[in-house]
Design the sequence.
């Protein structure tokens, strides 16, 4: 466990002194007493597993994908990406690895960066998490973001989005758990995922301790009330959260999902 991840766990344990589970009686992440807005990433918990929940709001954030500087060798590390950000670039709210990749860190499924398709949709079967069908695509243009199964995406999305990344398996499909996922199976890993709620916000979750597919899926379905959620990766799951000082490093990763702060939101916050 990285020092940053350990710090996130300590923060969650501190929160537990106020609420034993980090959730209210209805199972929702507990509201802060302060009138200040939530930071993009904050600790919570589900069934005794500490999590970090990062929320992207279309009114405040822009989402993009990133793979390699100048189309060359993939970053493979959030610290490398952080160091590559040019002076004057929009502030990063948070970034997370997102999408399955090969040994070179390149995507094995659909991947669009800045409107350019770098890999086509992968509808084939095979071994591993990615091929635990149905898998899915997280994608969007402007402030409209979605998670769809791969077959739904293939059948109904005709216009190329500004960003997109394919991963798998789906965790929640139309409000139901993936048919091959047990409610709380024996496979425990550090895992991360994404889903879009009814308000159009992208809800990213990374576990601070090993968690099962089923428990992560039920957190999305039962707590976040997300109807479609997509597993992004496990074991290598990493987060960069500038406001909390967290920057996970370690095992090489592949495609990245980056959430930036919109200029208008930054200006309003500075003026307040």
Sequence:
């Amino acid at each position: 466990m990285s020092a940053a991840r350990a710090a996130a766990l300590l923060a969650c344990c501190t929160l537990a002194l106020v609420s034993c589970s980090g959730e209210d009686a209805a199972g929702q992440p507990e509201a802060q007493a302060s009138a200040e807005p939530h930071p993009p990433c904050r600790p919570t918990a589900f069934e005794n597993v500490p999590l970090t929940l990062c929320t992207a709001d279309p009114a405040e954030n822009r989402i993009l994908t990133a793979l390699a500087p100048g189309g060359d060798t993939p970053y493979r590390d959030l610290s490398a990406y952080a160091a590559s950000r040019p002076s004057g670039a929009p502030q990063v709210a948070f970034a997370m690895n997102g999408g399955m990749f090969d040994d070179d860190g390149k995507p094995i499924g659909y991947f669009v960066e800045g409107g350019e398709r770098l890999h086509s949709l992968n509808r084939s079967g095979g071994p591993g998490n990615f091929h635990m069908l149905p898998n899915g695509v997280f994608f969007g243009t402007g402030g409209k973001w979605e998670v769809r199964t791969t077959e739904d995406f293939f059948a109904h999305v005709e216009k190329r989005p500004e960003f997109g990344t394919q991963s798998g398996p789906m965790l929640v499909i139309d409000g139901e758990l993936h048919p091959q996922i047990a409610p709380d199976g024996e496979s425990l890993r550090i895992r991360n995922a994404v889903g879009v709620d009814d308000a159009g916000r992208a809800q990213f979750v990374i576990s601070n301790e090993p968690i099962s597919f089923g428990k992560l899926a039920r957190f999305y379905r039962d707590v976040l009330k997300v109807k479609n959620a997509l597993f992004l990766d496990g074991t290598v799951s990493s987060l960069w959260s500038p406001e909390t000082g967290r920057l996970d490093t370690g095992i090489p990763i592949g495609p990245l999902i980056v959430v930036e702060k919109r200029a208008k939101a930054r200006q309003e916050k500075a003026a307040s």
